[in-house]
Design goal:
This protein is mostly beta strands. It contains 1 helix and 13 strands; from the N terminus they run E-E-E-H-E-E-E-E-E-E-E-E-E-E.
């Protein structure tokens, strides 16, 4: 995935930032084998647990500039969404071994992050899943 933004310098979270992420929730057999309940629908090898903070540095030297669009784009870091239900569920359909769920996350205070030009997407160096959002809250 890729994020387009106006600036090549990150923001720093002045407080915890609530955000959202679509995840594949592993079914009970896989959960017993892996011990991790969630995984990214894009990068499936990376597995997540609730209330565990993860870190992935953003190398500012890898931020590219597109002179035609006048924007910067980057790929590194954890991708999340600024609001619930931004991506429709049918993009990543459920499967026999997993179901697609949305989780509420927190970008912890002091974390470097970038926002997309429209403000809907965020890339951050640190991210923690707080809870799974029940279907009746979506």
């Amino acid at each position: 995935m890729c994020l387009f933004c106006k600036y090549n310098k990150p923001n720093v979270a002045m407080g915890d930032i609530v955000c959202y992420k679509w995840m594949k929730k592993t079914k009970w057999i896989d959960m017993l084998l892996t011990k991790r309940r969630y995984q990214s629908p894009i990068y499936g090898k990376f597995k997540w647990e609730v209330n565990e903070e993860y870190y992935q540095p953003i190398n500012e030297n890898k931020i590219k500039h597109d002179p035609l669009l006048g924007t910067y784009f980057l790929r590194e870091g954890f991708h999340s969404l600024s609001r619930k239900n931004y991506f429709p569920r049918h993009i990543f359909p459920s499967h026999y071994y997993y179901e697609l769920v949305q989780v509420e996350c927190v970008i912890p205070k002091g974390t470097r992050y970038f926002r997309s030009e429209d403000g809907k997407e965020i890339i951050s160096e640190r991210l923690k899943i707080v809870r799974e959002i029940p279907r009746n809250e979506e």
